[in-house]
Structures are given as C-alpha cells and as structure tokens.
Amino acid sequence: MLEIRGITKKFGDILAVDDVSLRIEPGQMVGIIGRSGAGKSTLLRLINRLIDPSAGKISFCGCEITHLRGRELRLWRASCAMIFQQFNLVERMDVLTNVLIGRVAHQGFLSSMVLHFSELDRARAVRALERVDLLPQALQRAGTLSGGQQQRVAIAKALVQNPKILLADEPIASLDPANAARVMETLKAINREDGITVLVNLHTLDTARSYCERIVAMREGKVHFDGAAEELTQARVREIYGTDGLEAEVDERVTSTAIPLSRPRQPARTEAA
C-alpha cells in the first residue's frame, strides 16, 4: 500500500501541494484530476521522489521512502515508474534501446555508461514491446514514430523496470483522440492483467470516469474529492473547478477526447506512423 501523510511542497512563496494525505490500495487505478496548477504533477513527482517534500511523509508497504538516497532512491524510482506527457525518449536511438534504458537503475555504473544490457534484459524489452504492439518498430528510430507510438514506447520502458506502481503525468494531453484512447486502454490492461497500481493525471473528466475506479480531484494544492467515479457528480465537479466557465470547459474536453463514458474502445489493429 502507498501511504501519503500530510505531504506538502512549497516553491518559494507558492504552496503547490498543501497537506495531502492519501492511501492507495495495491492494484487500484486512480485518476487525479484538476485544473492546471492544481498540484497534480507536483504530487506525482513527490511520490517518485523527483522532488523532495517540504513536509510530510510517503511510505510504501511500510517502508519510508521520503528520505531515500543513492542506490535505494534509484531502485525506488524504478519500482515507481514515471510516464511523462512528452514521452522522455532519446529520439535518435532506436525503440529497443529506449526501452532498455528503463533497466539502467538495475545495472552497475559501468554497464549503464556503455548501455550494455544482458540477454535477459533484451528479452524483457522485447516482451514489453509485444505488449504495446510495437515489436515491428523495435529497430526504428524513436523520433520517427507518431506521438501515440512514442507514448507506448514510454510505457514499455516503464514496464521493463518491473514496477509495482505506474505514475502517468498527463500521458494523453498531446495526443489525438484515437491515440489517447489506445494509450489509456494500454494502461488499463496493465493495471488489470498485472495488478500494477496506476496513478494517472488527467485534465479530462470523461476519461477519468471511463478508465479509473477511483478519482482524486485537486484544487489549489488540496484534495477536494476522493471517491468512486460514479460519486463525482456535477455538483461536486462545480465545487472542484469553480463555476466560472465550467460548462464550456467540461463540454470542450468531453468533445475533444471522444472517449466513451461506459467502457473503453478496443484498440485498432494498425496505426499510421
């Protein structure tokens, strides 16, 4: 279980995350929603320890991770894999090598410097690419892929880290509707089939309701809602987002995503590069 207790993060005079406490049970898929500046991305970076908290503690399965350093911190970041909005790939390298980079935290220093990977690591990377339907592109330069394909490479890269938690920071914000749906379906399949806990930041209310069993809504650094997707009523949405321009914002985002409320679409068999 991931437990966040009173976590706070200040950037100068700005209070980005304000006394947040959450308990995330193993195997949950949690959508974190809120307007830009609500503290969603900062919260994920605190969990992954990309940044240090100003106050509070984070623990996982009883292990305090807030003050980890050195190798223990690298291993935590591997077991708590991060997927970014802008893919975080090396575009000049081929897809397979980008995925293998996910194993760096498990390698020795010299092996990491020369990007030397074992046959077992290569087998892991191949299996990860199969799972995201990108094995035929294994030797293609990452920069030649479409945005949706690059994000699925990033998911494969996260998978080879053998994570217990996947953190996805607005993974579909820069994608078209079809690719957004496919990425969300991939994350949902990993959550369902592997039992990996997934925390995903989303601007889109419709997407959060479609794919996440639990929704955490943030506003001004605080948690304003934490519950099942069906409990997030329009009245609660107004409370979280405020009333000014809410209808236009919600309608625009629902229309732009074209991802259904009831259940995710099946992924297409092919995708243009």
Brief description of this entry?
With 273 residues, this protein is of the alpha/beta class.
Protein architecture, described:
The protein has helices spanning 40-48, 70-79, 95-100, 109-113, 119-131, 147-159, 177-194, 205-211, 234-241, 246-257; strands at 2-11, 14-24, 29-33, 55-60, 63-64, 80-83, 165-169, 197-202, 214-219, 222-228. By secondary structure, it is α/β, with parallel strands linked by helices. The chain has a single domain, classed as Rossmann fold, CATH 3.40.50.300. The longest helix has 18 residues, at 177-194.
- What is the tally of helical segments? 10
- What is the arithmetic mean of pLDDT? 85
| Alpha-beta content class | alpha/beta
The low-confidence parts are 244-273
Distance between the termini: 39 Å
How would you summarize the topology of this molecule?
Layout: E1 2-11, E2 14-24, E3 29-33, H1 40-48, E4 55-60, E5 63-64, H2 70-79, E6 80-83, H3 95-100, H4 109-113, H5 119-131, H6 147-159, E7 165-169, H7 177-194, E8 197-202, H8 205-211, E9 214-219, E10 222-228, H9 234-241, H10 246-257
Parallel strand pairs: 3-8, 3-9, 6-7, 7-8
Antiparallel strand pairs: 1-2, 1-4, 4-5, 9-10
Relevant terms:
4-stranded antiparallel beta sheet, 37% helix, membrane, alpha/beta, ATP binding, Rossmann fold, 10 helices, ATP-binding, globular
